[in-house]
Each structure stands twice: as structure tokens, then as C-alpha cells.
Design a protein that fits this description.
Layout lengths: L1 H13 L3 H7 L13 E2 L5 E2 L8 E4 L1 H4 L15 H5 L2 H6 L4 E4 L3 E3 L6 E7 L6 H13 L3 E6 L3 E3 L3 H9 L28 E2 L2 E6 L5 H18 L3 E4 L7 H14 L4 E4 L17 E2 L2 H12 L3 H12 L12 E3 L8 H4 L6 H10 L3 E5 L24 H6 L4 H16 L2 H4 L1 E7 L3 E8 L2 E8 L5 E6 L7 E3 L5 E2 L1 E2 L2 E6 L4 E6 L1
Parallel strand pairs: 3-4, 3-15, 4-7, 7-11, 11-12, 12-13, 14-15
Antiparallel strand pairs: 1-2, 5-6, 8-10, 9-10, 16-17, 17-18, 18-24, 19-23, 20-21, 20-24, 22-23
Helix pairs in contact: 8-9, 10-11, 13-15
Length: about 500
């Protein structure tokens, strides 16, 4: 410990470059300033591409209209349809795709039966390889779903237990195998199932052979398809030590590989750390974004952001959480909002508050979708991309999201900047994102009436220009004085 203390003292006193220590092999990874890469032991600066990314979320089985069940028939090459989405995704300003599930499965995609094969309802492995290559040529990264908490009942290890019972070498691969119990499927033995869904059999991640197998699967997808990351399904169910193993393994395979976990409740900082995951799903903010509008209560959203990201005590300060307003598991945002036009300030906040924004396919047109009991199919409809672009349900929303994507790309502070609250009422909210003395002031209004706002700005000597209209706004006594129309947003850049 004393050695490291002396090293860091020398570092700051003599301004020795971090890379020098990396080259000497003394220190493996350094804490970085916003916008910098990671210095590895080899002295390589790793691109943290995901920190500036805007994601597009694709649920391929649904969006292509593939059959709900996989009958094991011939391969259908639906990746041809998925390829048609790439120019649209690029046009929205998205720089990464989260697509999945892709593993060969029995029904919805999360009941895996073969980890090394693309689901035949979508195509074959060569189809997906071409998809990734094309996306990469367009400077779009590709992240896939990693379903490692459980398998389906048709997975080879489970079928071997069904056949050979106590003599199966795979009995230790699953949790709770008990030949004195039974299941709703009348297997003649019991097992632990994810949330008592017995088509999803929980893997035993303490079994070394299971870990070895799954890490080999991850290596296969990196080597064969050059994927850029994995979204870990049910990350809040995975063993922490397994995710640490995964981090070490992927660091060796691909140094800029992104690991993001699906975590709904709990302390996100337990997961997001250098030795484990780069990000998790920010369900706390997701809830605030729609209910804060439905209740005309911007205090809820502002409180969430203060709690998470405030520069003076935010519990997730410096972490890059994955932000979204809807996905394949929750009702579409257009169906959640009590006032349809609230969707515009909702997306403004998605793109400008701290976090990595994500758009769920079709929601850029405001398509509807609610769960029907336990049925998620209404959230995952088939969409013909050509028809949708020619006749969008909401062209205004599409253009607004396209503009927000452009703004996010142009303003570094929206990815790396600090957050500063400037104004807050139930129905109006303004804040700044600041990086190196530059950034933006964002203001939103969820009222049905115009609102006259007086926003004290972080820098009164700067020039403020609307990113929407291009008009310059004068600062008066340290404040921006503006009028927002009902459900209107404004974004002012200052240099």
C-alpha cells in the first residue's frame, strides 16, 4: 500500500503520464477523466464508445413477425428484413444496437436450446455475421442478449437429465435437481425455475463446468461475429463472481467490450464497477419519466436525478446507467402517458439527462402496446420498416427524436457533463449539463398552458443559442427569460 501511495504522490507532484506507469506494468487500470479511454497494462488506451452511445433496441422475433414457437423446421432468413432497418437506425443518430434474444430457442427467445446457433426463425449464423459486418461498416456497434441465468427445457444438458436421471453428468449444471420431487411437466424430478416459470430452468453458476461452458459461448460470439457487448438478461439473479469472471474474460478477448446488466431493483453500484459491469438498466429513472409526467410532478424526476447523479452526493455519480422509456418487457411509452403530447418532453429528458439513451423499435413513431395479463406479445409487434417510414404513425415525434439524436451527438456535455439543477416546479423543470465550461441548458414544460420561465444560468457571460430554432437568447441579470408552449422543450447551447 505504501508503494502505491508513493507512486500516486509522484504522479501528481511531477505530472507523470498515466501511460508511463501502464507501460512499466506497475498499474493495470487508472481512473480516467470524462471522455478519456482506459489505460491498460499494455499502455493501450481503450475507447469507451458506449459512454457516448445512443442505442436502438431490437426484439427480432417480434419485429420480423416470426412464429411464436420454433417448430424446428427449415431456416427462414428474416435477417434480410432486419438489415433494412440499419439506414433508419443510423438516420436517428443511434450509434449502437442492442438486439436479442438471438440464441436458438423454443418460444420467446429466453428459453435457450442452443447457445451457438442463431434462432432458425431469424436466419443462420452467416446471416447474423453479415448483419454485424454491415452495421460496423455504418459505424454502428452491435450488442446481443446473453441469457445465462437459465436455459430452456430443450437444452442438451437438461434433456440428458430427463433421459439418464441420477446417472446424468449434468445433474450439477442446474439448481435444485431433486429426484424425489416432480414438476408441472411431470418430469419425475424437481428443479429450480426462474420465477416458477418451469420452461426456464435455473443454471447452477457455482458449477465450474457451467462457467467454463458459458465463457466459451461468449468467446464464440466474439470470435465468430465480432459483437461489441452483451446485455445480461436477469443480471440481478447472476452470481457476482460469475460476472467478475466474465469481465476478466472479455477484457482479454476485446478490450472495449461492453457488459450491461438487466437490474430492476436494488443498488446499481453493486453491479457497475471496473471488475464487473459497465452499466445496468436504470429502472428507477424509467419509472420517474412516465409517472412524473402523468402526475404533473417534475419533483419526482428531479429527486431521482439528484439521488443518482448529483455532483454533491449522487449515489451513482460517475456511473453510466442505461436509460429507456420502454422496452420489450414494459408497456410502450405512448400507452403509458395520460397526455399524449407529454411524449415530447419525455424524450427530451431521455436524451439530455445523465445516462445512455435507448430507443425501443417503433416507439419513435409512437406505436401503442400494453401487456395483456402475462402476455408480452403486444409489446413486440411486427413492423414493416418501409411501410412505417412511408406512413409513420407520428411523423412529428419521429422528427423530434431524430433532432434529439443529432443534438446528443453534437454536444459532448450530454454524455460526459455534470448535472446542475436550475429551476423546478411541478410542471416546469430546467437543468444544465456542463463539460469544461461549455454545455447546454434544458427546459421542459408539462403544463397545458404556456409557461414564462426565468432560469438562472450557470454562466452569465456565455452566449446561449437554441439548438431547436437557432435563435440566440440574451442573458438578463444572470437569467434566461423564455416562454415554453404546452409540452414544449428547449435546449440552449452555451460556449
Amino acid at each position: 500500500m505504501q508503494i502505491f501511495t508513493v507512486l500516486f504522490c509522484c504522479l501528481f507532484k511531477h505530472k507523470i503520464q498515466l501511460k508511463t506507469f501502464c507501460n512499466l506494468g506497475i498499474i493495470r487500470i487508472y481512473k480516467r477523466r470524462p471522455g478519456e479511454g482506459i489505460c491498460t497494462q499494455e499502455g493501450i488506451v481503450v475507447d469507451r464508445w458506449f459512454e457516448k452511445a445512443v442505442f436502438y433496441h431490437m426484439y427480432p422475433i417480434g419485429m420480423t413477425g416470426a412464429p411464436r414457437r420454433n417448430e424446428g423446421t427449415e431456416v427462414v432468413h428474416r435477417f434480410e428484413d432486419l438489415m433494412k432497418w440499419l439506414p433508419h437506425i443510423k438516420d436517428l443518430g443511434c450509434t449502437a444496437i442492442y438486439i436479442g434474444p438471438l440464441f436458438e430457442s423454443t418460444s420467446h427467445g429466453y428459453d435457450t436450446k442452443d447457445y451457438r446457433t442463431v434462432d432458425r426463425r431469424l436466419g443462420d449464423n452467416e446471416d447474423f455475421r453479415k448483419f454485424v459486418e454491415t452495421a460496423h461498416q455504418m459505424d454502428i456497434r452491435v450488442v446481443v442478449d446473453g441469457v445465462f441465468n437459465h436455459t430452456g427445457r430443450e437444452f442438451f444438458a437438461f434433456q440428458d437429465i430427463q433421459k439418464n436421471r441420477e446417472q446424468s453428468p449434468y445433474c450439477s449444471w442446474y439448481k435444485g435437481i431433486n429426484f424425489g420431487w416432480n414438476t408441472p411437466y411431470n418430469d419425475g424430478f424437481g428443479y429450480e425455475a426462474w420465477r416458477n416459470c418451469f420452461e426456464l430452468v435455473n443454471l447452477n453458476l457455482w458449477e465450474p463446468k457451467v462457467r467454463e461452458y458459458l465463457l466459451d459461448v461468449i468467446g464464440f460470439w466474439i470470435d465468430e461475429f465480432d459483437i461489441d457487448g452483451i446485455r445480461l438478461d436477469c443480471a440481478d439473479c447472476l452470481e457476482f463472481s460469475f460476472m467478475e469472471d466474465m469481465r476478466r474474460f472479455t477484457n482479454e478477448k476485446k478490450k472495449d467490450f461492453w457488459l450491461m446488466g438487466e437490474v430492476i431493483h436494488g443498488d446499481y453500484s453493486r453491479y457497475v464497477k471496473p471488475e464487473m459491469l459497465d452499466s445496468v438498466t436504470n429502472y428507477e429513472l424509467h419509472k420517474g419519466l412516465y409517472s412524473g409526467h402523468n402526475d404533473h410532478n417534475y419533483f419526482e424526476i428531479a429527486h431521482t436525478i439528484r439521488r443518482e447523479f448529483d455532483a454533491n452526493g449522487g449515489i451513482y455519480k460517475g456511473l453510466r446507467l442505461y436509460s429507456f422509456v420502454d422496452n420489450h418487457d414494459v408497456d410502450r411509452i405512448a400507452s403509458k402517458l395520460s397526455v399524449p403530447d407529454h411524449i415530447y418532453p419525455v424524450y427530451t429528458l431521455l436524451f439530455t439527462l445523465p445516462g445512455i439513451p435507448s430507443i425501443y423499435y417503433g416507439s419513435e413513431w409512437g406505436i401503442q402496446g400494453r401487456k395483456e395479463g402475462g402476455n408480452d406479445d403486444p409489446l413486440r409487434p411486427a413492423v414493416d420498416i418501409q411501410e412505417a417510414l412511408e406512413h409513420p404513425e407520428n411523423l412529428r415525434l419521429l422528427e423530434w427524436i431524430r433532432l434529439l439524436g443529432k443534438i446528443h451527438k453534437e454536444i459532448p456535455a450530454l454524455a460526459d457533463g455534470t448535472y446542475q439543477e436550475l429551476l423546478l416546479t411541478n410542471r416546469q423543470y430546467a437543468f444544465a449539463r456542463i463539460l469544461n465550461g461549455e454545455g447546454v441548458v434544458v427546459a421542459v414544460n408539462n403544463d397545458e398552458n404556456p409557461a414564462l420561465l426565468r432560469i438562472r444560468v450557470p454562466a452569465g457571460d456565455k452566449e446561449y443559442t437554441s439548438m431547436i430554432s437557432g435563435q440566440k437568447v440574451q442573458v438578463q441579470d444572470g437569467c434566461l427569460c423564455i416562454t415554453l408552449e404546452p409540452n414544449e422543450s428547449e435546449i440552449f447551447r452555451f460556449l
